[in-house]
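FIELD: query
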Amino acid sequence: MGLNRLIWQTSTGANALALMSAELPARPAPSSSARGESFGSIVLTPSAPVSTTPASMSAARGDVAEPRGSTRVLLVDDHLDTLATLQRMLQRHGYDVVAVASVVEAMQWVERNLATPDQRATPFDVLVSDIGLPDGDGCGLLRQLRDRFDDVRAVALSGYGMDVDRRASAAAGFAMHLVKPTGVQQLVEALKQVLASAPATS
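FIELD: result
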């Protein structure tokens, strides 16, 4: 009986998402026509691996235009493993996720996806941004967006959760401040709350 790796592990410092790894005995699916593979009573549907290299994420950055469908999240994090993991998990919850790794990439994507130069509505529904970024910080990014658009809803991700950190993100306009490592369900619940809240004002 072979072994099949179900999940993988990545952890690099306080700001990284930690995932556990496990191997379980595999049992063939009842028929070759089944879409998933059977592992005892668990059925998994195969999915393509997500590469964390900048070149492979070009479509997510907006280099390839895609039609807007479900709730769109602009996700910003410079830790590429965390970025790819959160992108994949939010997509599994039905979100349309645009993943970028810096302030510059976020603003470039926004400008490329405006219908008109003077558009006042954001081309995304909610911003999820790490606070510490290589070319600035999430608070500065949100301030730029709030200066440009009428309603920007945002959730902060940070390795720091002291009162001073939460006050700083709230002052910048973040509706919620989540401390890493952040569980996906916690993030999904935060997104629901922020999207259901009254519009933010500049």
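FIELD: remark
Confidence is low (pLDDT under 50) at residues 1-68.
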